[in-house]
Write a structure and sequence with these properties.
Keywords: Membrane, Transmembrane, Transmembrane helix. This is Membrane transport protein MMPL domain-containing protein. The chain is an alpha+beta fold. The protein is built from 32 helices and 13 strands. The chain is elongated and about 120 Å long.
Length: about 775
């Protein structure tokens, strides 16, 4: 097929792919950008049920805002909360809003428990009832003299000894600092009043449209609240705020990386080629690569992660390399330019460059992180399309000769090349290598590592601070660790949970744990309920004495008879507890039955000491502490350790490619600049106090591929630009600067992982580009 026809076919195919990508991106009801940072994490738990539990906890309240209205004046805080709740309730962005509590009858909350009152005892009451010397008359007297209860309190005639009341006092809703005041959930702390308002979103927190509608509605409501009630402060928590912040950060990064790098590359190409034509063609080739990359990623994964989106903006600097090398070949050819001859000239260099790049990204795609696999897919598709555009599109558009490269750039490149050549020649080369190694040694010695998951997922400081304050004031929320309790039956699961909670209670009494939330604390096992009844049975067997105690305390005969006739009552079952309205906020803790058996969750409160929490579960059958951040961090650590081996393997795999082209003796010399660049980059990271992470090592993998490209470009281009010394190296420097303008800007990203990528690539590409002339001199000397 002739070049013009081939170019037309390629252009039609590229346009079709771009249209498909546009439809996948914008034509299906919203941009499919994944803002759920947890969605990119791999499955790390040993048991699949633990992964289900992690997802269950993550999304239990994921589509809900928790808002806390704060003011020094009690009445103002409550009025402001009512104003905020009313404003949000009228907005369609929310499916429900809770500010003022609906009217409720306390008896309706307590009534379901009365039939089971003799099966529900606190640990203290059960121990006291079975201890020698227990006197029910004294318990009755203490009950009659108890102060008025502000929370959920039982009536004296229903619970004269206070046994049910003591059990209710240990329930999560009784321990919460939030109490109903004036039909509002209110807490008091540091002479300030806090009122809670909750709002359920009308959709997913990770839906772009839902985010915008909900946040706009909240901003309007907050402005109204502040206007009507000056001095009011609003604290907020919820997945929607993190998702929106992550999206905003990614969009900002795309603008910074994409726009600044595009502008910088455009000005650079205009200066170098001294014509707008090469600029437009270079960006056309890159645009095709980006369009193909987006389409391929959406076809394979169905969506794009934030990391992929920002990384895609940075890929501009590498994808433009292929067209730059072809444009440089055209500029160096002068009046003798022939498109097909230029293709034959650059084909070996571009093919080797593509091979090394694909190898680096393929290794990146082996990692079990969806975002990194997306980045690998994006890069491999985009680089391949940019490569093909040089061979199938540009020749038809570059028929005429062009102006030579900027003389100033060529002269600068020539000067740097001469310096590099002298430093790399003969004994000076050995001395330079020894000197560089000596300078790098302290940096290598200072290297450390850090595998913390927060280097990948780092919430904005202001959101994290607000969530900590909300948790401190309200007692809501839990740490990132939880216990997974499993059993062959619901009864066995509850019994195992009770064994765990006994240890957690000990830690709580020692002040080492704030508390916990678990199903067994609200629904004792049948075995525990039978033990509770057994503790009460000896006293109810003495009916006459019980009647005397109650009558002497002032209870009327019908009340005494009704209370004693209620013995022994019935045990509280799982089905009954799940049907109670008061269990609604806690039902997610009961995972029920699956092919893995029965399971429940226990959430420790106020403690992040994993060693302490793990000790509490030691030796307990069916109890496992699940710590998702720690498990992901451990996975990062394992793969970081593997990464150095992968980097070495990549070097070994590249050697046959280079040996095929340059010979076995020459291949290591051509590889020397990127390898030295990696070594110097590691040293510089040590000097900068940058702990090595998995992302530093992945970036070093790309440094190897990109640096090898520069060595190839110089080796292949120098013979064809001998009439203009420095012109070939000028093309290499041009490629390096475009890469620095894109990848280097990732060092400014709001995402820690991308910052590590960017800084490593900035250093690695810079060092390698400066060291590349040493390989050319070695080659000339040995040939």
């Amino acid at each position: 097929m002739k070049a013009p026809m081939r170019a037309v076919c390629f252009a039609i195919a590229a346009l079709a792919i771009a249209l498909l990508g546009g439809w996948l991106l914008f034509g299906r009801g919203g941009v499919p950008i994944q803002t759920d940072l947890l969605a990119m994490l791999p499955r790390t738990e040993r048991h699949p049920l633990a992964e289900i539990a992690v997802e269950r906890l993550t999304h239990a309240n994921g589509d809900r805002m928790v808002l806390l209205v704060e003011h020094a004046d009690d009445a103002t805080a409550k009025a402001a909360a009512r104003t905020l709740g009313a404003a949000l309730a009228h907005d369609p962005a929310f499916s429900s809003v809770t500010a003022e509590l609906p009217p409720f009858d306390l008896n309706q909350i307590l009534a379901p428990y009365l039939a089971h009152r003799f099966s529900l005892l606190s640990d203290a009451d059960r121990a006291a009832l079975t201890a020698p010397g227990y006197d029910p008359a004294q318990a009755l007297a203490r009950r009659l003299n108890e102060p008025f209860l502000a929370g959920i309190g039982t009536k004296l005639q229903d619970d004269p000894f206070g046994w049910l009341q003591h059990w209710l006092d240990q329930q999560p809703w009784s321990r919460s600092p939030l109490t109903p005041e004036d039909d509002l959930l209110t807490a008091h702390r540091d002479e300030r009043t806090y009122v809670m308002v909750t709002a359920a979103l009308n959709g997913s927190s990770y839906d772009d449209t839902v985010q915008h509608q909900a946040l706009d509605a909240l901003n309007r409501a907050e402005r109204t609240m502040r206007h009507d009630h000056p001095g009011t402060h609003l604290l907020r928590a919820g997945a929607v705020f993190h998702a929106a912040a992550a999206r905003a950060g990614a969009e900002r990064d795309v603008h910074v990386v994409g726009l600044i790098s595009s502008l910088g590359i455009a000005l650079l190409l205009l200066w170098v080629f001294r014509s707008p034509g090469p600029l437009l063609l270079a960006f056309l080739s890159t645009a095709i690569g980006i369009a193909v990359a987006i389409t391929a990623t959406l076809l394979v994964f169905g969506q794009m992660h934030l990391l992929t989106l920002v990384f895609g903006a940075a890929l501009l600097g590498e994808a433009v390399d292929y067209s730059i090398q072809y444009l440089c070949a055209r500029a160096n050819a002068g009046p003798a330019w022939q498109p097909n001859t230029g293709l034959r000239q650059v084909r070996p260099a571009l093919s080797l460059a593509l091979g090394t790049s694909l190898l680096g990204y393929a290794l990146l795609g082996l990692l079990p992180f969806s975002a990194l696999r997306q980045m690998a897919c994006f890069a491999m598709a985009g680089m391949s399309a940019a490569y093909l555009s040089v061979f199938w599109l540009l020749p038809a558009l570059l028929q005429k000769p062009a102006k030579p490269l900027s003389p100033r750039l060529v002269s600068w490149a020539r000067a740097l090349q001469v310096i590099g050549a002298r430093l790399g020649a003969g004994k000076r080369g050995a001395f330079a290598f020894a000197l560089l190694s000596l300078a790098a040694l302290p940096g290598w010695w200072m290297l450390s590592h850090d595998d913390d998951i927060h280097l990948l997922i780092s919430p904005p400081a202001h959101l994290a601070a607000q969530e900590i304050r909300i948790r401190d004031v309200t007692g809501l929320g839990n740490s990132t660790q939880f216990y997974l309790v499993q059993g062959d039956s619901a009864e066995q699961t509850l019994q195992r949970e009770e064994a765990l909670e006994a240890r957690l209670q000990t830690l709580t009494e020692q002040g080492r744990l704030q508390g916990w939330i678990g199903v067994a604390g609200m629904l004792p096992s049948a075995q525990r309920q039978q033990a509770n009844q057994a503790a009460l049975a000896p006293w109810f067997a003495q009916r006459a004495r019980m009647q005397t105690w109650l009558a002497d305390a002032g209870f009327r005969a019908p009340v005494v008879t009704a209370y004693l006739d209620a013995w022994p009552g019935t045990s509280l079952t799982l089905e009954q507890w799940l049907a109670m309205p008061i269990s609604t906020p806690f039902r997610y803790l009961w995972m029920g039955h699956s092919k893995h058996g029965y399971a429940s969750l226990v959430l420790p409160q106020g403690q992040d000491d994993v060693a302490l929490l793990r000790t509490a579960a030691e030796g307990l059958a069916g109890v496992e502490l699940v710590d998702k951040p720690a498990s992901v961090s451990a996975l990062f650590g394992r793969y970081r350790q593997y990464a150095s081996l992968w980097l070495l393997a990549a070097m070994v795999l590249i050697v046959p490619l280079f040996a095929w082209r340059y010979g076995l003796r020459m291949a290591p010399r051509v590889l020397a600049p990127p390898v030295l660049g990696i070594g110097l980059t590691l040293a510089m990271l040590g000097y900068l106090g940058q702990p090595l992470t998995l992302f530093h090592w992945m970036a070093l993998m790309l440094v190897l591929g990109i640096g090898a490209n520069y060595a190839v470009f110089l080796q292949e281009g120098e013979p064809h630009a001998a009439h203009r010394p420095g012109a070939a190296y000028a093309g290499v420097l041009l490629s390096a600067v475009t890469a620095l303008l894109s990848f280097g800007l990732l060092a400014l990203s709001s995402m820690p992982a991308l910052r590590h990528f960017g800084l490593t690539l900035l250093l690695g590409i810079g060092f390698t580009a400066l060291l590349v002339p040493m390989s050319l001199i070695v080659r000339e000397k040995n040939t």
